[in-house]
Design goal:
The protein is built from five helices and no strands. By secondary structure, the chain is mainly alpha-helical. It is elongated, with a radius of gyration of 15 Å. The N and C termini lie far apart (33 Å).
């Protein structure tokens, strides 16, 4: 099973972004919370297009930051939503719940990374 967070990718991004890493993480966390909220609303409304677009929007920046679990779950949601939930809405519901938890863990990890920059 793939790691939830690719520590090497995070370190690479910190080295690449240097002083802008803090801004990148802050933006990711703010946007991520918004996408999670939109995914939950889209799920309630059974709006498959909104599910797919918000999952897609969260997928790539998560991968870029080494947040493998978040990116993987977002990709699964995107694929299922593009199929209009043909396999049932329950799978999407479960994945959105899992994504919320994985995003929370990733967000806490990123916050700790930022705090380590201050120390």
């Amino acid at each position: 099973m793939k790691e939830a967070i690719d520590q090497e990718a995070v370190a690479d991004m910190k080295a690449l972004m240097k002083g802008k890493f803090r801004e990148l993480v802050s933006r990711y966390c703010a946007n991520g919370e918004e996408y999670i909220a939109k995914l939950k609303a889209a799920l309630t409304a059974e709006d498959f297009d909104a599910l797919a677009s918000n999952a897609h929007a969260l997928k790539s920046p998560s991968a870029l930051l080494g947040l493998c679990r978040v990116s993987s779950l977002a990709e699964e949601i995107e694929v299922l939503a593009k199929n209009k939930g043909a396999d049932g809405l329950e799978d999407i519901q479960r994945l959105v719940g899992d994504l919320g938890g994985a995003y929370g863990e990733a967000s806490r990890f990123l916050t700790e990374e930022l705090e380590s920059l201050e120390g």
